[in-house]
Design brief:
single chain, 124 residues, mainly beta, four-stranded antiparallel sheet, 12 strands, 0% helix
Length: 124
């Protein structure tokens, strides 16, 4: 069964760091773009960081300079290093694979694979 499983979330104080991991399993094809999204409480889901097959990275303005996406292709893992965390970073974080790069972002055009999410809670 193709699956993405996130881990590494939890409570953290403002200014702290977390490293989220996303493990792909089954006969998974991570595709041309992998990404992290987040769903803050009471808000819409938003894209946080994208990483294309050619190494191009794109970050949401709100996390630029604080978050870094990376990938280990040998084991189908994707990571999100989050530093200088702020209370507004509190959200359920999802990873996604099999996205299609379009211009300056990536989209799920029907073949995307999504994890169940890991909760990040940043206290002030």
């Amino acid at each position: 069964q193709v699956r993405l499983t996130e881990s590494g979330g939890g409570p953290v104080q403002a200014g702290g760091s977390l490293r989220l991991s996303c493990a792909g399993s089954g006969d998974i094809h991570m595709g041309d773009c992998v990404a992290w999204f987040r769903h803050p409480p009471g808000k819409e889901r938003e894209g946080v960081a994208y990483l294309s097959r050619n190494g191009m990275t794109i970050y949401a303005e709100s996390v630029e300079g604080r978050f870094a996406i990376s990938r280990d292709k040998d084991i189908n893992n994707v990571y999100l290093q989050m530093d200088s965390l702020k209370p507004e970073d509190t959200a359920l974080y999802y990873c996604a694979a099999g996205l299609i790069p379009v211009g300056s972002t990536c989209y799920d055009l029907g073949d995307g694979i999504w994890g169940q999410g890991t909760q990040v809670t940043v206290s002030s």
